[in-house]
Write a structure and sequence with these properties.
Two copies of one chain form a homodimer. The first copy, chain A, is about 45% helix and about 10% strand. With about 375 residues, the first copy, chain A, is of the alpha/beta class. In chain A, strands 3-2-1-4-5-6 form a six-stranded parallel β-sheet, with helices on both faces. In chain A, helix 5 crosses helix 10, helix 6 runs parallel beside helix 11 and helix 11 packs parallel to helix 12. The first copy, chain A, is globular and about 70 Å long. The termini of chain A are far apart. In chain A, about 60% of the residues are buried. The interface between A and B is large, with 64 and 64 residues.
Chain lengths: ~375, ~375
């Protein structure tokens, strides 16, 4: 067994990219003609107009992303980016930092929630070491893309240098380019990193202007005292310097390797025309940053669920998007995204397999 | 091809039944020991306690219903009960009455939403003619259990005689007993019947005391004028007589053949120990009536979704239950129940396949 190798970073791949969008080709607009055709077809199917609720715009979005009226979910891949956080030693999480590596081993062994859901739903699961503190044994499902061993403590210094942050963004894109088969058209984005909701809270604050306290939640399960400590630690970190002026600066000051890599991965997946299933709070923050770098990204994203993590609902509202599921999940790993995949598959099946009123000889509305 | 035959009603099958619970064996309490064991196991799995949100009590409920810590969804069956309503000619629906039979033909031909979802998810789909106006051609997936050709117009007389209503309740139980294989442990309940949200609104009003106007919604898509007409028609129907004093009386006055049959089917499925996936507003009304007849029924029910039909949320709140999905669907047919099945399967997989902290060597919470 060996870990999946990545080729050395090849800067020329990014030669035609805009300077601040992290090495990806620009993201094309989705195909509004396919969306319109899907909506026309949905209105002809044997059901009252709109009666399939959220499944109708979902099916139409998949058509817009796939640029066809006959979309499929082909070879879905889950990428779980994992990294450690210097700030985790300040008691901002209910779990010790060592759990990041332990859970990655659990993902690989098949015992974690995302492992179970991926297996059950035919999702090809890859774990990416974006910046785990520990050395991990090689494994055919583990991708070594370690930017550094854990971020620095953002209370006293930038979490990453700007070079490390740029490298993380590019590696995220590279993972998409090299790990995902061209035959795959759907990616689920997940994360694992003890302390990463602390990073995500600061990123959300910097990105949206929502008051910092409203961006901070209990993560894996802090009690009231822990939550107060987390808020205090993050306020101190934020006050360390003048507010960052760009997504890249924000990410290097307060981000995590896995979060930056998720941002790069979202950009790359969208530029490749893939459907992107967005998991919980931390992944949504990474995608929101990606949308700052390229506004078309959001059109490729399905926001799978609203997490129980405090700030996720406000962030989704800020983005103007509606999550599909509200199951009070707060696990990360891509589990919310995995739960939404059957809904996407169902929406596609309904669009493509239902009969029209004309086919079925069913009467329309009464006069 | 022939329709699935039902044996003649055999009253002695019901000899040991309580007089008002429609020919079913009493429903046993679910197994709280299995629920408790499931909750203990959930707390040992490699995730923060409660981090799987609603999936955790769902998995525990399935254990309680199945009386095991190792449940499965075996041979799920969808029963879609269809009937016509005399009141439909009074403009309480956006569609003409003939659509009930047309849609049943569409179910059988595979073109309807429930046909597509059942096929995609391995659900065995049966359609039951509970009281369709038209004669239907025989079909191997169509069960002839017609109580009468459409109900009477409840504005001027009881929708069913008490004998017809009793027969519908018993036939619902009989369909469960004779159509569903003993190897199946999960049933999805759905309905089709132009005008049946009008019936359901009056039943909800009689059952809950919620003001009638708040029980009335747009059904398949009435406009404001249609909604006002529906409310007026139902107020007239309700004022025809003194309020019914029992679930059976309520059903025969204002019910539909398919609704009464759903009530009988829910009782029979629960008494057989099956997991019952409850679809939208009309099915929830039928289940609420079943719960009046035997209070244990609700413990077997998973409330799949909250429909966009106006009153469904209030009815679910009245029952003290939380739906799994909120997708603004309002189609009926069992489509909401079918959308929830993957969530139930996922909850079971997580409970039974995830590693514990001890198995995986993952550290617990920080001190």
């Amino acid at each position: 067994m060996s870990s999946k190798p990545l080729s050395a970073l090849v800067p020329e791949r990014c030669a035609d990219a805009a300077s601040d969008n992290s090495g990806c080709r620009p993201v094309a607009a989705v195909d509004e003609a396919s969306r319109a055709a899907a909506n026309r077809r949905l209105d002809m199917l044997t059901k009252p107009q709109g009666a399939l609720g959220r499944l109708e715009p979902l099916a139409a979005q998949v058509c817009a992303v796939s640029r066809t009226l006959h979309p499929t979910i082909a070879q879905p891949v889950a990428l779980v980016f994992a990294g450690d956080h210097g700030v985790a030693d300040r008691g901002v999480s209910a779990y010790p930092r060592v759990v990041t590596a332990q859970m990655v081993m659990n993902f690989l062994a098949g015992g974690a929630a995302i492992s179970v859901l991926a297996k059950a739903q035919g999702i090809d699961l890859w774990i990416v070491d974006a910046g785990i503190e520990a050395d991990l044994p090689v494994h055919p499902r583990l991708i070594d893309a370690k930017v550094r061993r854990s971020t620095r403590d953002m209370v006293v210094e930038p979490a990453m240098t700007s070079e490390e942050c740029e490298r993380a963004l590019q590696l995220g894109a590279k993972v998409v380019a090299e790990v995902i088969s061209p035959a795959s058209n759907t990616v689920l984005l997940g994360e694992m990193g003890i302390g990463n909701t602390a990073s995500a809270a600061l990123l959300m604050h910097g990105l949206t202007g929502v008051p910092l306290d409203d961006c901070v939640g209990r993560g894996t399960g802090l009690d009231d005292r822990g939550l107060a400590r987390k808020k205090a630690v993050l306020a101190t970190a934020w006050a360390r310097r003048a507010p960052p002026q760009s997504p890249s600066e924000l990410l290097s000051e307060f981000g995590g390797c896995e979060i930056a890599m998720l941002t790069g991965a979202a950009l790359a997946a969208a530029s490749r025309g893939m459907l992107v299933l967005v998991d919980g709070f931390t992944v949504t923050v990474a995608v929101a940053l990606a949308a700052q770098l390229d506004r078309h990204v959001l059109d490729y994203c399905v926001f799978a669920h609203c997490s129980a993590e405090h700030a996720h609902r406000a962030l989704l509202a800020h983005l103007g998007v509606e999550p599909l599921l509200n199951l009070d999940m707060r696990l990360g790993e891509g589990t919310g995204a995995a739960m939404a995949l059957p809904l996407v598959r169902a929406a596609i099946a309904l669009l493509t397999e239902m009969a029209t009123f004309e086919d079925a000889g069913v009467s329309g509305r009464a006069a």
